[in-house]
Specification:
single chain, mainly alpha, 26 helices, 5 strands
C-alpha cells in the first residue's frame, strides 16, 4: 500500500495496454476456485442437465428449453443460459463439466469486469482489491461451479453496467440502449431477478449525464421500452404458439411464460406465497408434514431454484409452505428470519456478508461531505450507482418470503466494488489524518473482524478454534496499532494496513474453497464446511472436528450425502426432519422414508463412481429397470412416465430417451388430465408408469386412474437386489403397465 495514491496516478498515465501483473494472480485464483474439479460433477443439477440433453436433440426442444426429449414440459426458467450450455455441450461433448463451464467462465469474467469498472474511476489498487474481493466472496465460486443460472446472470448485468458507464462517458445514446437491452437479455435468464439492478441504472443515468431533463426522460423511456421488448420477446412467441405445438410451460399453472415470470419466478419470491389459483384440478388433503417433506425431496434432489414454489393447492383456500415438523417457511433452506439484520444471521452471513461492516464504513467515507444538490464527482456518482444496486437488493433479501442462499450472488458486485474503492479511500483518509474520517479505517477493520468471528463461531467443531481466535486477535491488534500509529508515516504503517486487508480476506478465501475441499451441491449451492449438503448453516454436532476444516481438510462425516441436514436444528433457517423421524437429521423423503431410500434412479448416499453425482445425489439409473423398459418398449414415444422430474432426469441424462414427468418439476403442474392420458395411451405414446405413491396437486386424479386401470409389474422383473429398499411415500415404488385398445 506504500505511496498508493502516487502509484495510482503513475499507473493511470502508463501504457493502458500493459498487463497488470497484480491482476494475473487474482484471475488465477478465480480460475482455480471456479474451475478446479468441476469435471468430478458428472450430472451437476440433474434437472437442468436433463434439459440440455433434450435440447441437443432438436431445434424444437432447444428453442423451448424442453426438460424431456419428447417435448412434454419445459424447465421452470427461460432459455438463454441453457442455450449457452447446450452450445457448450455441442462443442465439447455432453458432460457435467461442459454444462458447468459457461457459468465458471462467467464467474471469472465477473472478476475481470469488476476490475475494469472500479479501476477506471477509483484507481488500479481499488480495481485489484475489488476483483480479489469478488473472487473470494464464497457464494460466487459456489454458484459458478454449477449449472445454475445466477453466475451467468451477474456477469450479464455487469456487462450492462459497463455499457451504461460507457454511455455516460461518451454521451452516446446507443450505449444506453445497449445497456438496457442487455438487462432484457438477463430477464430471459432468470426473469424478474434481472430487474433488481434497475434502480441503480436509473439513478446513475439521471445523476451522471449532463443533458436536459427532457432528454433524460426521453432516453430512459426509450431504453426501458427496448428492455421490455427484449424481455418479453421469447415469452410472447411461446405464449402465442398453440399449446399442442409446444411443451407445457413448466411450473406455471396456466401454461404461460408471462404467468411464470411475474408469479412463480416473480412476486411469489417476495411474498413466499405458494398458493395457486385458476386450476380446475384439486389437491387431495395432505398433512403439512407430507407437503413439506415432498418439497424437501425436491429441494435436495432436483432444481434448487424450483423447490419451494411447487404450487401446492387446496380447493378453497391458499396454503403457506411449512417446514417438516411444523416450522414455517422462514426456517426453510437456511435463509433465516425476515428482518433488518437477516444478512447477518447464520446461513446467509457466511455466504456473502464477510466484508459488510467494512463496506458500511467505506460508504460513509466515500459519501462524507457530499451535498444533496451536488455537484458530484465521478467517484461519488459511481459510488451512488453501487449503493443503488446494494440497498434494494439487500432490502429484498431482508424481507423476501422465499429464496435460496445462492441468490445472494446478486449482492457480490456492489460489496466487492465498495470493498475495493473503500480500501483506497479509507487508507487515503487515514494517511492524511483527515479528522474523524481517519478513524474509519481502523474502525472498519475492527468491526469486520468481529463479524467474521461471529460468522465462524458456530463452525468451531469443523474448522477448529485457532483460525477463529486468530482472525479475532489479529483484527483487534491491527486495528488498535493502526489507531495508535495514526501520526506516524513510515513503511511499517503501510505493511500493517496491507496485513489488515489480508486478515479480512483470509477466512472468505477459505470459505470460497470449501466446495472444493468438502464437495459442492449443484442443486442448492452454498459455501462452508457443510457445502456438500446444499443447505448451508453450521455443521452437525456429530461432526468430528479432527476430520474436518483446518484439521485435516476432510469433509464432515456423512457429507457425501446431499440430504444431510446441518445441525438438525429447526431455528435460524435450518430445516429439521418431521417429528418422530428416526433418520437422525437426514433429509426426509415423502412419507417418512429417508433420503437413502432409492427411487428408480437408485439414489444412494455414496456414489460407486469416482465422479460426484450432483452434490451427493447418486443420479444413477436402476439398470435392471432400464433393461426391462427398453426390452419391452414396442414403439412407445416415452420410455416410461413418472410423477415428477426427480425420477425422470437421470434416465433422460443416461439414455437421451423421452421420459414423461407427468406433473412437471415437482409433480403439481396441471399438465395432464385423465382424458389426455387415455388418448396418449391409445396412440401408443406411453404404457409404463413408475409411481412412488405421490399424487400431488392436479395429478391426483391421474394417479388414481392409473392405479385402477393398470397391471402391476412384479418387482422381481425390474428391481435389482441393490434397490430392494426402493420406497415411496406409502411403501415400495411400483411399476405399472397400461395398454388401451
Amino acid at each position: 500500500m506504500k505511496h498508493m495514491n502516487s502509484e495510482v496516478k503513475e499507473e493511470r498515465t502508463s501504457n493502458k495496454n500493459r498487463i497488470d501483473l497484480f491482476l494475473v494472480p487474482i484471475v488465477l485464483i478465480a480460475a482455480f476456485l471456479n474451475l478446479f474439479k468441476i469435471w468430478t460433477d458428472e450430472y451437476a443439477n440433474a434437472y437442468y442437465t436433463a434439459a440440455v440433453k433434450s435440447m441437443l436433440q432438436s431445434f424444437h426442444n432447444f428453442f423451448y428449453a424442453s426438460f424431456d426429449p419428447g417435448g412434454y414440459v419445459t424447465i421452470d426458467k427461460p432459455p438463454v443460459v441453457f442455450w449457452i450450455q447446450t452450445i457448450s455441450a455441442k462443442i465439447f461433448g455432453f458432460h457435467g463439466w461442459s454444462v458447468i463451464l459457461p457459468q465458471a467462465l462467467a464467474g471469472i469474467g465477473s472478476v475481470l469486469l469488476l476490475y475494469v469498472l472500479v479501476k477506471r474511476t477509483f484507481g488500479v489498487w481499488a480495481g485489484r482489491f475489488a476483483a480479489l474481493a469478488m473472487a473470494l466472496t464464497p457464494i460466487v465460486p459456489a454458484v459458478s461451479r454449477t449449472n445454475n443460472i445466477d453466475s451467468m446472470l451477474v456477469f450479464t448485468l455487469l456487462v450492462a453496467t459497463w455499457m451504461l458507464f460507457r454511455a455516460v462517458r461518451t454521451a452516446k445514446f446507443g450505449w444506453v440502449l445497449a445497456a438496457f437491452a442487455m438487462i432484457g437479455v438477463a430477464f430471459n435468464m432468470k426473469m424478474l431477478q434481472a430487474y433488481m439492478v434497475l434502480p441503480a441504472f436509473y439513478v446513475f443515468y439521471v445523476v451522471a449525464t449532463k443533458i436536459t431533463w427532457k432528454k433524460k426522460i426521453a432516453f430512459l423511456t426509450t431504453a426501458t421500452a427496448l428492455m421490455l421488448a427484449v424481455s418479453v420477446s421469447w415469452a410472447v412467441v411461446v405464449d402465442s404458439t398453440s399449446a399442442d405445438k409446444r411443451p407445457y410451460m413448466g411450473s406455471s399453472q396456466t401454461n404461460s411464460v408471462l404467468e411464470l415470470a411475474f408469479g412463480y419466478n416473480g412476486i411469489n419470491r417476495l411474498t413466499g406465497n405458494t398458493s395457486v389459483t385458476g386450476s380446475s384440478h384439486k389437491q387431495p388433503a395432505q398433512t403439512e408434514q407430507q407437503t413439506a417433506s415432498s418439497e424437501t425431496k425436491q429441494s435436495s434432489n432436483s432444481s434448487a431454484d424450483s423447490s419451494q414454489s411447487s404450487n401446492q393447492r387446496k380447493s378453497s383456500s391458499s396454503q403457506k409452505m411449512q417446514a417438516p415438523g411444523g416450522g414455517n417457511q422462514n426456517g426453510m433452506f437456511n435463509t433465516g428470519n425476515p428482518g433488518p439484520f437477516r444478512l447477518f444471521q447464520k446461513g446467509l452471513s457466511d455466504q456473502i456478508s464477510w466484508l459488510l461492516p467494512f463496506v458500511i464504513f467505506s460508504i460513509v467515507g466515500l459519501f462524507a461531505g457530499v451535498k444533496f444538490k451536488g455537484p458530484y464527482t465521478t467517484k461519488q456518482k459511481e459510488s451512488l450507482f453501487w449503493l443503488a444496486w446494494l440497498l434494494p437488493v439487500a432490502v429484498f433479501f431482508s424481507i423476501a418470503g422465499f429464496f435460496h442462499q445462492y441468490y445472494l450472488i446478486m449482492l457480490a458486485p456492489p460489496i466487492a466494488a465498495f470493498a475495493g474503492a473503500g480500501a483506497v479511500a479509507l487508507w487515503s483518509m487515514y494517511k492524511q489524518h483527515n479528522g474523524w474520517k481517519s478513524w474509519l479505517l481502523p474502525g472498519g477493520i475492527l468491526t469486520t473482524a468481529a463479524l467474521q468471528v461471529y460468522i465462524m463461531s458456530p463452525y468451531v467443531s469443523s474448522i477448529g478454534a485457532a483460525p477463529i481466535a486468530g482472525v479475532g486477535a489479529l483484527g483487534v491488534i491491527l486495528a488498535l496499532v493502526l489507531a495508535v500509529r495514526k501520526q506516524r508515516k513510515n513503511s511499517l504503517t503501510n505493511y500493517l494496513g496491507a496485513a489488515a486487508m489480508v486478515v479480512l480476506l483470509a477466512m472468505p478465501a477459505y470459505w470460497a474453497m470449501t466446495p472444493i475441499i468438502y464437495g459442492g451441491n449443484s442443486m442448492l449451492p452454498s459455501a462452508g464446511p457443510d457445502s456438500s449438503s446444499g443447505m448451508g448453516g453450521p455443521p452437525s454436532t456429530a461432526t468430528n472436528s479432527k476430520q474436518s476444516g483446518f484439521n485435516g481438510m476432510q469433509p464432515p462425516s456423512g457429507s457425501s450425502n446431499g440430504g444431510q441436514m446441518p445441525g438438525g436444528s429447526s431455528n435460524n433457517g435450518q430445516m429439521q426432519p418431521p417429528s418422530g423421524s428416526s433418520n437422525s437429521g437426514q433429509m426426509q423423503m415423502p412419507g417418512g422414508s429417508s433420503n437413502n431410500s432409492q427411487m428408480p434412479n437408485s439414489f444412494s448416499s455414496k456414489s460407486s463412481s469416482s465422479k460426484r453425482k450432483s452434490g451427493g445425489m447418486n443420479a444413477e439409473v436402476n439398470q435392471k429397470l432400464l433393461n426391462y423398459l427398453t426390452k419391452n418398449n414396442t414403439g412407445e414415444k416415452y420410455l416410461f412416465a413418472t410423477t415428477d422430474s426427480t425420477s425422470a432426469a437421470p434416465y433422460i441424462i443416461k439414455t437421451g430417451k423421452p421420459v414423461m414427468a407427468m406433473g412437471g418439476f415437482s409433480g403439481s403442474d396441471p399438465i395432464l388430465t385423465v382424458s389426455k392420458l387415455k388418448a396418449m395411451i391409445k396412440k401408443g405414446e406411453v404404457k409404463y408408469f413408475y409411481l412412488s405413491g405421490m399424487g400431488k396437486g392436479g395429478q391426483s386424479d391421474v394417479i388414481t386412474w392409473i392405479k385402477e386401470n393398470s397391471k402391476e409389474i412384479p418387482s422381481s422383473k425390474w428391481q435389482s437386489t441393490s434397490s430392494s429398499a426402493q420406497q415411496g411415500p406409502s411403501g415400495n415404488g411400483t411399476l405399472y403397465e397400461i395398454t388401451l385398445k
